[in-house]
Every structure is written in C-alpha cells, then in structure tokens.
Amino acid sequence: MMLTLEQALDALLWLTAISVLIQCAEALRLQAGGPLRAPWPWSIQRDDLAGSSRTVRMVFDWLYRPAVHRTHLMLHALAAASLPVWGPTIPAALFLLASQVLISIRFRGAFNGGSDFMTLVVLMGIAVGTVATPWVGTSLAWQAGLWIISIQALSSYFLSGTVKLRYVGWRDGRALPTLLDGGIYGPLAAHSMLRRRPVAIACSWAFIVWEAAFPLAMIDPRITTLWCAIGAVFHFLVWWFFGLNRFFWAWLATFPALIGCASMIRG
Q1: What is the pLDDT of residues 61-107, one digit of tens each?
Q2: Is 221 exposed, middle or buried (0-12, 13-18, 19+ CB in 10 A)?
Q3: Cβ(244)–Cβ(23) under 8 Å?
Q4: In the Cβ-directed half-sphere of 144, how many Cα atoms lie within 13 Å?
Q5: What's the rounded Cα separation, in Å, for the pair 6 and 87?
C-alpha cells in the first residue's frame, strides 16, 4: 500500500491523538485515587531532587501538585485532540513535546517503559515537521519528521530481534512460555500448545525474523504494510497477555510514518 505524504500525516495525527488520550485518561484515573495512592507519590520521588537548588525543588513541587498535575494532563489531552481536528500548530506541537517530557519526569523516565519513549519520539517527529514547515516547506519538513519516527521505530524492532537471536532461550523456544507465564491472567495452561517445544520454537523464530528483518521491509511499501499488519497483531497479543495497551497504540502510531517513508523510497 502506497501512502502520500498527506495521507501518512493524517493517519499519524489521528493515531497519535488516540494514543495520547488513552495515556492521559489512565494517568487521570490513577490520580483520582489521591496523591498517596497514586504510583510513585511525589512526596517520595521529590527526594531525587535533594541535590538541586531550592528554586528547582519549588518549581517541581508546584508542577506536580495534584491539582496542577491534573490540569496539566487535561491540557495535554486537549492539545493531542487538536492535532487531527485543527492540524498541527507550532504551539500545540511544542507544548505536547515539552509536556510529554514533564510527564515522563513525573514517573522517573517512563510509566510504561518503551511505549512512553516511543510516544516521545512520535511527538518529536511531529514537532520537527511543524516547526520546520515555515523554514523549508511542508514537504521537506514532514519528510524529516516522518523519518525521525521511522528510524527510531525500525531501530526498536531490529534491536529487539537481534537481542532475541543472541539469547539461546529464544532460539530453542524455552523463553516464550516462560515469558507468557508472567501474563496478567496467570501462567499458561498446562495443555497449552505454546508449551510444546516445536510450536514455541516456531513462534520464537517467527518473532525473531519479523523483528530483525523490519528494516529490509522498507524496500517496498507493500512489504512494509504487511510487516506493520503483523506488528499490529503482535502488539495486540502483548496487550492481551500483559495488559500493555499503551504498547499497542504507541507503536501503531508509528506505522503511517513507516509506510509513508517506504512510499518515499519507492518514489
């Protein structure tokens, strides 16, 4: 499937908005339980600033007060919703990027691992495309923004696949059932097909090949689309087994950039 730059951008903005809105809804739900019941209470985390100046501590104490933080999350959500509705503007794009950094700091770097970092990458690509447009034109600016997102997404898949390839537990199938035993619904059933060594080996190698070969899939947008479709299933299964819904939406938001960049290569 070929995507024009405009089509890739539209899809990127819609999926990014959905991803960020879900993250904000989750954070607001956690904050509703009170500052002491929320994960990583600021009263504890503020000790990380023990070596900072009094002014810095005062700024962060104010920023992460429950009422201020809730307002911040709501503004973050509104800015994200504005992307596909009114289009990316410089104030909204820069606010979202800076805001995502502050939210990450609040949760000591990331609340949900790689999905938060990938969201930051996507917002960085949007910020670059938006800010650069008045200087170099829409086409070149958004090509740069989409490539920033694509390079990071490709790196994440490639590194994940090569790490699995180096680990004997993935090559011989032992790692997969062990990993799935930690799912939110408890260990795999004793009779699960995934406990059978041939099935586990086949699934493990399918993941390894799919992830490690992702950069090669960029040679043709049709192959990229297939790889992204497999990715959607893969991330949905991660959501299903481990409850990591942020991973599904965070990486899904990168797919328009990947297909768009593959379309550019194909020309």
Answers
A1: 999 888 899 999 999 999 999 999 999 999 999 999 999 999 888 88
A2: buried
A3: no
A4: 14
A5: 11
Claim: this prediction has a pTM higher than 0.90: yes
CA distance 185 to 196: 20
Contact 22, 245 (CB under 8 A): yes
Beta carbons of 108 and 40 less than 8 angstroms apart:
yes
Residue 81 · residue 21 · CB < 8 Å: yes
C-alpha dihedral sign at 182, 184, 188, 193: negative
d(CA 44, CA 18): 31
Q: Which residue has the tokens 């599904």?
A: 248
Residue in this structure with the two tokens 């797919």, named with its chain if needed:
255
Query: Taking Cα atoms as reference points, which of 131, 132, 129, 105 lies closest to residue 117?
Result: 105
